[in-house]
Amino acid sequence: MEEDQKVDPSVEVSRWLQEVGRRKWRHAQPAEAHAPEVAPRRTGQTPSFRRTLLLALLLVVSLQYLYASTTVEILSLPSLLVFVFAS
Q1: How wide is the angle at C-alpha 53 spanned by C-alphas 50 and 55, nearest 5°?
Q2: How far, in Å, CA of 73 to CA of 71, rounded?
Q3: Which of 1, 52, 76, 87 lies 20 to 30 Å from 18, alpha-carbon distance?
Q4: pTM score of the predicted model
Q5: Which helix (H) or strand (E) holds 56?
Q6: 3-state percent breakdown (helix, strand, coil) of the chain, nearest 5
Q7: What are phi and psi of 60, to 5 degrees?
Q8: pLDDT, tens digit, for every residue of 57-86?
Q9: Could you please report the per-residue DSSP string of 1-34?
Q10: What one-character DSSP code corresponds to residue 77?
Q11: H-helix or E-strand containing 44?
Q12: How far is CA 33 from CA 4, 28, 37, 38, 51, in A?
């Protein structure tokens, strides 16, 4: 009786394929149909302005790094005291 209750997997697959074959296919809707409408961005800044701003920021950062590096080097120098005798 156990052998009668066992179902061959290939029979199940064939039944499933027949069922899927009978279904009607829905055509996929384009992604734009589901996406919300977004207003175009108005930044008011031209790419040349952005480029100039980034270059200025890079200049300021590099000068600040140079200044900090120089300050650290000066502070790391050993101090030297010089006494001048006045006559």
Answers
A1: 110
A2: 5
A3: 1
A4: 0.37
A5: helix 47-75
A6: 60, 0, 40
A7: -65, -45
A8: 999 999 999 999 998 888 888 888 788 888
A9: -HHHH---HHHHHHHHHHHHHHSPPPPPPPHHHH
A10: S
A11: none
A12: 51, 10, 9, 13, 36
Question: Residue 1 pLDDT > 60, yes or no?
Answer: no
The C-alpha atoms of residue 54 and residue 3 are separated, in whole angstroms, by: 77
The contacts of residue 56 (CB under 8 Å, 6+ apart) are: none
Find tokens 């200044």 and name the residue: 67
Residue with tokens 């977004």: 38
- The one-letter amino acid at 22: R
CA distance 57 to 5: 77
